Amino acid sequence: MRLKRYTILVVPADKSRVKRLQLPRWLAGALSVLAGLGVLLLGFAGYGYFTDHTRLSEISTERARLEERAEAQRGQIKLFAAKIADLESRLEQMQELDRKVRAMANLRDRRETATPTPMFGIGGEAVDEGRWAFSLYNVETALVDEMNAELERLSMEASIQEQSLKELNHSLVEKSIVAAHLPSIWPTRGLVTSTFGDRANPITGAHQFHTGLDIATRVGTPVFATADGVVIYVGRHGGLGRLIIVSHGNSLSTRYGHLSQTYVNVGDRVMRGMKIGAVGSSGMSTGPHLHYEVLKRGMATNPRAFIVN
Predict the structure, then answer these.
(1) Structure pTM?
(2) 187-220 core/surface letters (b: 16 or more CB in 10 A; e: else)
(3) How far is Cα 10 from Cα 20, in angstroms, rounded to an integer?
(4) Residue 50: what are its φ and ψ, rounded to 5°?
(5) Given 3, 129, 166, 244, which is the most exposed site by the fewest CB atoms within 10 A?
(6) The CATH number of 191-305 is which of 1.10.10.10, 3.40.1280.10, 1.10.3370.10, 2.70.70.10?
(7) 253 in helix, strand or coil?
(8) What is the pLDDT of residues 33-56, one digit of tens each?
């Protein structure tokens, strides 16, 4: 029995002799299957190439977009970090001023027992511009988290500093009020002719305790209140002649005697350095001068212990 064959005619384009190829049926079938498989493989390869090319193009576009976004965010982060650094520097200056003022005011530093907090910083390996989206996202997220933590720390520091400054202000106000009521200046300008303590009475010659300072100067020389207070007496008072008494609180009072003029009335509030009278020689006096006393709880105290200039 003869095997069936397939005949393939090859017709040249130049009209030369036609060529015939005879193939066994099984070989022709095999070649047909191989050709079909080749077409399928080429189709799959073409589809895969097209799909991969499209996907790679999308990834490249997305990566470029994310890198652009990351670059913009890095710029914002750097600006944010610079602002935080400036805020931290200013806060440190405030803290240093607080410490200095507290030292001058003899107040304890509120921060002595505070736990030191590390300074803010940004570091680590250099960021590769070609990292994938999740890497860029992680870097940005880490920086944002670190900055949020730093802002929280600075907020706490600012709260502590605010409370400290309020406390310091309150203390200084109290101290300034107390200081303003201390008789710390000279009541007039002149020559001290008699000091606080034992002496011979210039008129009688008898031994006595002098309860203040005698300051000799011309008649009419201004007499000033040596501290803030309230006038509690204006008038003549025995050997002191015209007398002014000012109460300064805290059981302190001052007396100004032998005046020629008085410029205040009982109940008037006076400030340190305010003119309240004029030097004279009223009462028991050998010449124009001011008799000046400081009393604490009604007892005469050396005025020089309070004068600071």
Answers:
(1) 0.51
(2) bbebeeebebeeeeeeeeeeeeebbbbbbbbeee
(3) 6
(4) -60, -45
(5) 3
(6) 2.70.70.10
(7) strand
(8) 777 787 787 777 777 777 777 777
